[in-house]
Amino acid sequence: MTRKPKPVLDIPLSPNLSYERALWEDNKQWIAGLDEAGRGAWAGPVVAAVVIFPPIANLEQNLFGVRDSKQMNVHLREFWAGIIREHAQAWGVGSAEHSEIDQLGILPATRLAMQRALGHLFESPDHLLIDALLLPDLNSPQTALIKGDQRSLSIAAASILAKTTRDALMRQEDNYYPVYGFSRHKGYGTRFHQQALAENGPCAIHRMSFRPLRELSAIS
Fold this sequence. Notes:
Elements: E1 2-6, H1 18-25, E2 31-37, E3 46-52, H2 59-62, H3 74-87, E4 90-96, H4 98-104, H5 106-118, E5 127-131, E6 142-145, H6 153-176, H7 182-185, H8 191-200, H9 211-219
Parallel strand pairs: 1-6, 2-5, 5-6
Antiparallel strand pairs: 2-3, 3-4
Helix pairs in contact: 3-6, 4-5
């Protein structure tokens, strides 16, 4: 069964396992949380991650510091990424490259990255909990949760793995294209990034289908 996005009625103080528990009690064991990072960036891939936690006691206590990755600094994200991998029953990461984003569009590319993340699992999930999206090409039962990374612990954990993976990729890209400062802004449209584009034009990993890049190409 596919469930449409649920409205934001109650945002807990920290993400919890209420959605996962309801599914566990319904005899669903493999509950996968999915989220992405880099959807709004001007360069580089969009990266998605999936996390499946086991239905064990004290899991919320062991992961008490896990939050939406946007609410954490780089040091906390890196720390909790390791803890998440230790506690996860399974996890996976997938991406869609800048060229696929230009070809498909950012929303289909994001879904593609999520499907690739799911492809790393050794067993199909019983249900997907996804941050604000549905995956219509999959037959898996799924629920889209608005602000899911603030509500579901599995989705929040996936957001951290996606963000830390993508940040590492963009730091690597900074070695090849140092003038753009990718290690600083990870490809997002900061003032520094805009200035670097104005001075140097786009590089090979910029998303040329995005409006700021199209406008820059039109000017040049």
